[in-house]
Amino acid sequence: MARLADYFVLVAFGPHPRGSGEGQGQILQRFPEKDWEDNPFPQGIELFCQPSGWQLCPERNPPTFFVAVLTDINSERHYCACLTFWEPVDPTQVSEVVCTEDATEREEDADEGGQAWLSPTAPANPGQLFAPKTLVLVSRLDHAEVFRNSLGLIYAIHVEGLNVCLENVIGNLLTCTVPLAGGSQLDSVEEGARTISLGAGDRQVIQTPLVDSLPVSRCSVALLFRQLGITNVLSLFCAALTEHKVLFLSRSYQRLADACRGLLALLFPLRYSFTYVPILPAQLLEVLSTPTPFIIGVNAAFQAETQELLDVIVADLDGGTVTVPECVHIPSLPEPLQSQTHNVLSMVLDPELELADLAFPPPTTTASSLKMQDKELRAVFLRLFAQLLQGYRWCLHIVRIHPEPVIRFHKAAFLGQRGLVEDDFLMKVLEGMAFAGFVSERGVPYRPTDLFDELVAHEVARMRADENHPQRVLRHVQELAEQLYKNENPYPAVAMHKVQRPGEASHLRRTPRPFPRLDEGTIQWIVDQAAAKMQGAPPAVKAERKTTVPSGPPMTAILERCSGPHINSARRLEVVRNCISYVFEGKMLEAKKLLPAVLRALKGRAARRCLAQELHLHVQQNRAVLDHQQFDFVVRMMNCCLQDCTSLDEHGIAAALLPLVTAFCRKLSPGVTQFAYSCVQEHVVWSTPQFWEAMFYGDVQTHIRALYLEPSDDQVSPSQEVGEAQSQDDERSALDVASEQRRLWPTLSREKQQELVQKEESTVFSQAIHYANRMSYLLLPLDSSKSRLLRERAGLGDLESASNSLVTNSMAGSVAESYDTESGFEDAETCDVAGAVVRFINRFVDKVCTESGVTSDHLKGLHVMVPDIVQMHIETLEAVHRESKRLPPIQKPKLLRPRLLPGEECVLDGLRVYLLPDGREEGVGGSGGGPALLPAEGAVFLTTYRVIFTGMPTDPLVGEQVVVRSFPVATLTKEKRISVQTPVDQLLQDGLQLRSCTFQLLKMAFDEEVGSDSAELFRKQLHKLRYPPDIRGTFAFTLGTALTSGRPARAAKDKGPSLRALSRNLVKNAKKTIGRQYVTRKKYNPPGWEHRGQPSPEDQEDEISVSEELEPSTLTPSSALKPSDRMTMSSLVERACCRDYQRLGLGTLSSSLSRAKSEPFRISPVNRMYAICRSYPGLLIVPQSIQDNALQRVSRCYRQNRFPVVCWRSGRSKAVLLRSGGLHGKGVVGLFKAQNAPSPGQAQADSSSLEQEKYLQAVVSSMPRCADSSGRNTLSGFSSAHMGSHVPSPRARVTTLSNPMAASASRRTAPQGKWSSVRASGRSSGLGADVGSRLAGRDLLSTPQTNGAPPDPGFLRPQRAALYIIGDKAQLKGVRPDPLQQWELVPIEVFEARQVKASFKKLLKACVPGCPTVESSPASFLRSLEESEWLIQIHKLLQISVLVVELLDSGSSVLVSLEDGWDITTQVVSLVQLLSDPFYRTLEGFRLLVEKEWLSFGHRFSHRGAHTPAGQSSGFTPVFLQFLDCVHQVHLQFPMEFEFSQFYLKFLGYHHASRRFRTFLLDSDYERIELGLLYEEKGERKGQLACRSLWEYADRLSKKTPVFYNYTYAPEDTEVLRPYSNVSNLKVWDYYTEETLAEGPPYDWELAQGPPEPPEEERPDGGALQSRRRVVWPCYDSRPRVQPDAISRLLEELQRLETELGRPPERWKDTWDRVKAVQRLEGRPDGRGTPSSLLVSTVPHHRRSLGVYLQEGPVGSTLSLSLDSDQSSGSTTSSSRQAARRSTSTLYSQFQTAESENRSYEGTLYKKGAFMKPWKARWFVLDKTKHQLRYYDHRVDTECKGVIDLAEVEAVAPGTPTMGAPKTVDEKAFFDVKTTRRVYNFCAQDVPSAQQWVDRIQSCLSDA
Predict the structure, then answer these.
(1) What is d(CA 1683, CA 1676) in angstroms, rounded to the nearest whole number?
(2) CA–CA separation, 1156 vs 1152, rounded Å?
(3) Does the reported pTM lie above 0.70?
(4) Which of 120, 420, 1213, 1669 is buried most, with the most CB atoms less than 10 Å from its CB?
């Protein structure tokens, strides 16, 4: 029995001692006056009675009641029930208070007060003031209703003046006892439900809960949910569990108390162990700033004081809100529990919700009563805890049983088995104090059980089954709720109260007197009487029924989650088992094959467990001696297992392997044994104290269980029974054993108890010694001398670095150390390894021994032993280390030597490395399929030209494939050191990641045999080769010079030569090459090589000063060149530029340099000394009217002196394309205008020099006026509305090429997309938007056009400028608009070189990520591609180019004047020419274009390619590559317009950066002349040197193979290309993504030819090829080589057959040309390069013997091709063979004799060749059947030279004789045939035959 109330206290209002306005509580009386021994009187009751402070009140308030909770120092809770009522104040007391009150404080009170407290304005009548008085009951029991009734009764007796003695009532109250919890276990109902009476005619029933561990909540939980809602309560629940601070606010004290009680009830079965104050008095508010967690309630009146609390979660009960501060993160419940709990709560709180949508809802269901709902809500949380903690008992370690149980919880194992290692919520809960209390209270195996124990043990399966059935869940919740309700109200039938209450409004009646002073003696006497009675009674012992706590099903039965993506199928486990059995059976080859699969499988948890179990089977008597290979395999598998272990080892893998690493060993020499632990030390788990503690406790539990399971001697029984008992024992868990022992403990004798305690302690002690040994094994490195160096190197401070070790791996395995300051190791500076290990072990021993109750003497003994253990182990290891070094190293695979180019030499021989996967999934068998070629094991070689990796895949199942990956040294863009795990041994090794701008990446881990110095040497040599001090150190120069492989490519001198000396050498060199005398004037020095790329003379000064130093004579145009300059001039003339200028008709260079004045442009040699502009070519095209000396001044206005020069002229519209650098800023140009400027402002605005203006004027006037009304630009179609809608403004016009509205109107009717629709019918330039804004990206193609195609012809502006200047927005501000509106500015925004660089970097990252991405989906690649903005830049370039093409095509000239004129300008100008002129789309033309625009016009290849140390800082900027990408995009859209293939573009892209050839070295022609490169090809080509020029190499290669040729090339002569430019139309160039691992990049053709085909002898004689099937892997083989297209295949076959027949093979080009000619003869409209036409080209009389048959197909006209060898060996029927022969003969007869053709009319005509070609007599045949006009060289010629398709003929008209025509023929004998492509000029022998030809052709046309 227990006392109902401990103390009764009467507290009244008293004045404050310091005289402040507030009063304070005074205890008037307390009973009993002496403290109880077992329960002292709690302090501070007077504060808690009036939490808001003691104040007088002007009116009498009704009585209030609440229960405050006080917690004492022993964390016992005391419930203080307070009933407060008001009494009139004694006047003297009031005057005291008023007098002493300070005025200022009065004001403060008036401000703060919630009620009207006493203030100067209060009524002066003291009779109106009332003071509070409180009756307090203090109890340790929580019976709030009983307290309310009892105090209410006392108050009623006082107020109503009943004739009952108050002393008796209070005495009875204090002596009343109630039964302890568990009443149901007592005999009678009366005992369980105690009825009490206080002697005032009252009766109350006190119901004691059945189980006192279950909290009593009444309605508090339901009220909490009503006030705050589900989500808020859940977040408060999580906050309390994860130890956050929770503060409740309300105006009601009772509600605060209920809310706190409700929250605590939800936390069951965990107990809240932090500060818990449901009602906090105002004076104690500073408690809220405590650093510890709490649950506190505060009156809402003090809300302001809680505002500045930053880390407190505030729940406002009255407002229904929960405020979580920003800095607080409340982890939520793990899914799916969070959502399930939420759903069940809403079903309980709102049953209507489920029925809300029903069409016919059932009659309204009765909602549960509030008390019942309260229990249902608690039941939901009880289920939640059962689900969260299911299986927790299987993770308890019982460390001691006697004298008291010591229990530890294995947190990591619990989280690991539940698959919730990452879960923030559960992690925090398990680490919290509440859970620690839960373990120590509920972990005990033998104790009373309650509802939760039953639930977590027996109901888990049911809960999982019910998960998806809401109604079943609800039923379960209701069942639990009934049990909880029954616990609180065990006897609902007897719950009848009869208590006197005061009458209504009794507090307003004037009471006759204040509450009387009670008589202490009477009450004390009643209490003493009761105490005496109690002494006689037996002591009240809690009747507890202890049982063994059920453990429930083991965790594995509950939940086995698969670990990530590796679902371990039985097949995988089988592989692991097989491999291990092979190892132990000595079948090493079999094991080796399986090993990679095993290592992959070991990523999965089940496989790792399986490995540990299998290895256990091979250990006998704790020892397993292996041979070296077996040891190596076992260690490797163990390392693989451990590498994925976290420091917690949540899956118990390290725990399972720990006994094995001390069991497996090998003999190194007699007496020296090496154990596996010395090879698996580097894993982080070994240095984690928590792991060792869990392991220790687990082992102690095993031994203690064994201690009690030993059959004791005195119970000898027949063996059979023993066996049975034994088998039962085996099944009993340690907890069961402990429970049994705890049950027996009280029955044992004292001695026996002592003996058991000692046995347990010695068990723990021996385990501690054992673990000290184990820890020293795994923490002491094999080579302890290396420790200090190692630590400094690895930076061992951080726990995260999964492995910190230096590894030496021979057969001896790995040596590794792993220390960690965080895990208990201190810094290595002050101490040696041994000291650190000793300290670590001592800390561990201290912790576990004190927790396990080992005596201090024993502990001291342990501390003495640890250093000895460590020292002994170090001595053992020294011998092992010494012997292990003597072992022969493992046989590594032979290094494969790479194939080298002629002249390429090895600088560093192969370093063994592993090539690792780099994020491209192709190499590892990703989406493309195929086996995992990477990781591969091999070596990296450094040559003078390349970095090459050759090796074999580490996966033996891939087969003997050689993996090659290489890139030119010059293309290295980034090199970074990395630390990676080797794929085979899983050891951490140093590595290098090399990234190249050819989209290659070598991610290598050095083999352990490669020392750090070798790796460092490799890096240094690589750096030297990448950035040679002088450009002449590059491979293109050193090629062919003798180089010793050991030395770097070029030995640098002690000091860089001085600038002067260097320039002298260069000048000498230049003289030698060209022999010009004028260089000796030395007016300017070239920049020194070591300064190149810095902003030296080129960038800093604009060379005006330089050029002014020159003598004027060099600049005046001379009538003839001096003889000494002739040679220079002749060299210059032979340059590509001049050839092209002559082709374009821009002028030729006669010896006198005088030209016919009618020519608008001339070639000027003004720059032949490179004096005006160093980066321009020697000869430039300028307007005829401009004198050379004026050019000098013009050039000053432009950046880098790059003044506007003509680079192309349209053959049709005669418009010219000019290029220049951007204009200078205001500074320089302003100087020229200063003298005639009236004011400084004017000078700024007018900042264009007169010379510049004159120059532009000359350009404009030198063009034929094209604004005439030639059909191309007619404006007749304009309506007046269109004319009126665009009125040019008088100021400088903003460029609008066409009226956007008009354009879009015309667009609706215009045909979309097809170019040919606008071919000959006057292709006007309609650009449907304002040019400037369109290119600035504001109004990108505003017209409704698909795909970003160039707009269809719109309406031209009435007046079009003759010249458009396209320039940077920023630069064009200073240019004055042309007053005559002859030229016009188009300001555009372009990207800068640095943006190209940044974009390319990102593109590289996207295409070659470097490390495997988390999500390797196509989406992630596309996302990173988009972020790189590379395609946006391509789009911008194409867009600008198409715009320029449109302008040129419409007859306006264009000057492109962007940046310095050598990057984007070059890109745009080249693209424009490519799109406009079909010549540049041929192989020869494209070469010319690149030589002219890129090389001669000074694109800075060396600077942009970072070829020298000076350019290193600026980095690689692939401007040329971007241009090639643009060409590739155009090529994709117009595949038939280009003579060269896509491979040619890739080849140029690769070699422009590779430095294999000299072509793309240096920054300008000037620099090339200085080095003597430009003309060296002429005189020096005596010996058969390797090609130095890329063009020469490409020429040689194209003669051998059609690799650069595009078979679908069928150009339209006048075609101007207008590609789509929208990003959606652009494709990622496969140059960036493709890879060939079989041979490395395929652009060095000699290397890419791979191994030769099998020799001929292997084929059976006479027969055709045997079928040799082979697998083609997308990323391994070069697909174009392994699977050539049909045409290449047939050409190869032809060459092979011709060789077989002993004939000299014909060149492929000749064969192909013949085939095309025959093709034209056939005239099939669909026949562009079809296979049938190919065969026709082969020589007729060998045809049958080749096994090549042309069979007639099902349709007569089509020919089916069969290359089947069986056809000739008689397998087909003779009839089909006959048919085949017949068809063959008819086919060939058609061109063996000319007669068999259809010849309607024939004869000789003279034909004018294409542009610049002479007239020739040809034999023409008009063929009406085929509708063709064919021509032959002569009458008997069988080979057709060309075909004119009559379908394309538009008109036949009389012609005029042109230059070179036959002289003797009459003019009227000339006629022209105009086709859609071009005009053919013919001349007959006389006039009648001409007339006849015209008539015949006309009649042919009319027949059609």
Answers:
(1) 13
(2) 12
(3) no
(4) 1213
